[in-house]
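Listing S7. Sequence submitted for prediction.
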Amino acid sequence: MEWRNAIVHAIDYWDTDLVMFQEVCYGQWLMLRDHLANRTGVKYDTTWGASLPSYSGCKRWDPTPETNEPGELRFGLAIFAKGGPGTIDLDTRSVDFLPEPLQAEDRILLCAKATVDARTVRACNTHIDFNAQNTTAQTAAVASITRDFANAGDPVVLAGDFNQLPQHADMNPLYNHGADTAGKPSTGVLQEVDENDKSQFASGGCALSADRCRSGEPTASKECSDATKSTAKIDYIFLSYYWFTTVRGDAMECTDKVADHHLLRGAAAWEN
């Protein structure tokens, strides 16, 4: 309940339109789903996707431990959208398992259409593997799938833990501006909410006179988790460039220990 209440407080305090969770147990999702769908006042619709059929760490969240029903220990991703039932169009829900050149824990991309501010977006959520070969292949796959959505006319909101730095070549297929550390230009169609924070431009090798930079506040640090080896930006909220403008991002302090990364908050306005 403490975890749920802290998450709900953050959602309500920010008046959040879309919420993306990685590393979510099925029982955690049920707890949030039921609370946010049935409470008085602002409600949230949701969808969920499993990347692992069972994860031992989810035992503490199992809503039916006495029955030991199969599937209760599933582990994956969740998307929440502000509004009642039907705010997320479940007929458009898709779960893509991402490539694994090096066999490791399964990773997915979860997407669905959702109504945000009376308009429809394609909301997508992912968690990329940290093994280098998989990071490259999975990021490219996510970029390709979301680019196809954007080219088909969908405003895209893509969030997730990419386990990669903004300036790395792996991120070239996502960003629509800038270049990697070797000077190879970006080829994507997306902007990132924290790309105009000039206090972080030096980390991305950008001049203060630039308008945008492949940079941003660190989202992983020992402040949130003692297991974190280095301070880095590896979590992102991307928006398709054509439909959104005036992006803003902020990595929050880890004051309530609800996650092992800094919660990343993003905002934008519709382009037209």
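Caption to Listing S7: primary sequence and predicted structure tokens for the chain studied. The CA atoms of residues 51 and 271 lie 34 Å apart. The mean pLDDT is 94.
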